[in-house]
């Protein structure tokens, strides 16, 4: 039986929800009062950044996966007119853009702080987060771009990673020194947390 492949998943219905996404023509899933919801996509690295922050800070949440190829009408009308993920919602408060969502979560939920207290160091960390976006861009160019551009993308990716490695050596085990920092949210090392999935 298929569920034997996932012995760690006690709730088979939840597992199926993880694999589904809301598409065009679907209805808006009701949001329970006080529940923090993230609108996500299983393969989007930007959404995964915010899910990683939720996991690191152990914030209870529910996930609604969005089909980015056939976005639900309600998502564009009610949540994010740009149609991108992630977005987060709690009651009538809605935010989108991964960096904005991560900063907000770090300020509102103080446990396992991701940003340093020093404003200058915060700014330096944000610069590195922005630079990491270039790494993501080159990575996808190398994987999915025109074949004639693969070599150039790989070379750019390697240079960017070397620069990150140099910065890491200056700081210690983590970009935050001895502790995780906001840069932690740029990497795709998602752990299980207090998350439940919503499906149709």
TrEMBL record:
Question: What are the EC numbers?
Answer: 1.20.4.2, 1.8.5.1, 2.5.1.18
**Can you quote a single GO CC term?**
cytoplasm
Family label: Belongs to the GST superfamily. Omega family.
Q: Is Oxidoreductase included in the keywords of this UniProt record? A: yes
Give the superkingdom in one word: Eukaryota
For this entry, the protein name equals Glutathione S-transferase omega
Pfam families tied to this protein = GST_N_3 (PF13417)
**Molecular functions (GO terms):** glutathione dehydrogenase (ascorbate) activity; glutathione transferase activity; methylarsonate reductase activity
Q: Which UniProt keywords apply?
A: Oxidoreductase, Transferase
What the protein does comes down to:
Exhibits glutathione-dependent thiol transferase activity. Has high dehydroascorbate reductase activity and may contribute to the recycling of ascorbic acid. Participates in the biotransformation of inorganic arsenic and reduces monomethylarsonic acid (MMA).
Sorted alphabetically, the Gene Ontology BP terms of this entry are: glutathione metabolic process
Q: Could you tell me what reaction this enzyme catalyses? A: methylarsonate + 2 glutathione + H(+) = methylarsonous acid + glutathione disulfide + H2O; L-dehydroascorbate + 2 glutathione = glutathione disulfide + L-ascorbate; RX + glutathione = an S-substituted glutathione + a halide anion + H(+)
Please list the residue ranges annotated as the GST N-terminal domain: 34-113
Locate the coiled-coil region(s) and give their ranges: none
Show the InterPro entries listed in the entry. Answer: Glutathione-S-Trfase_C_sf, Glutathione_S-Trfase, Glutathione_S-Trfase_N, GST_omega, GST_Omega/HSP26, Thioredoxin-like_sf
């Amino acid at each position: 039986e298929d569920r034997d492949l996932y012995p760690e998943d006690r709730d088979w219905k939840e597992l199926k929800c993880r694999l589904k996404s809301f598409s065009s023509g679907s209805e808006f899933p009701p949001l329970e009062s006080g529940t923090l919801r993230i609108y996500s996509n299983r393969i989007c690295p930007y959404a995964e950044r915010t899910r990683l922050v939720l996991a690191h800070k152990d914030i209870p949440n529910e996930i609604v996966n969005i089909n980015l190829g056939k976005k639900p009408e309600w998502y564009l009308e009610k949540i994010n007119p740009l149609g991108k993920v992630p977005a987060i919602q709690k009651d009538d408060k809605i935010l989108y853009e991964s960096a904005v969502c991560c900063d907000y979560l770090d300020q509102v939920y103080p446990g396992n702080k991701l940003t340093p207290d020093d404003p200058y160091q915060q700014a330096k960390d944000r610069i590195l987060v922005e630079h990491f976006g270039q790494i993501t861009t080159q990575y996808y160019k190398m994987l999915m771009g025109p074949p004639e551009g693969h070599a150039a993308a790989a070379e750019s990716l390697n240079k960017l990673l070397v620069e990150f490695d140099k910065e890491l050596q200056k700081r210690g085990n983590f970009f935050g020194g001895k502790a995780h920092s906001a840069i932690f949210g740029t990497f795709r090392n998602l752990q299980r947390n207090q998350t439940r999935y919503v499906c149709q």
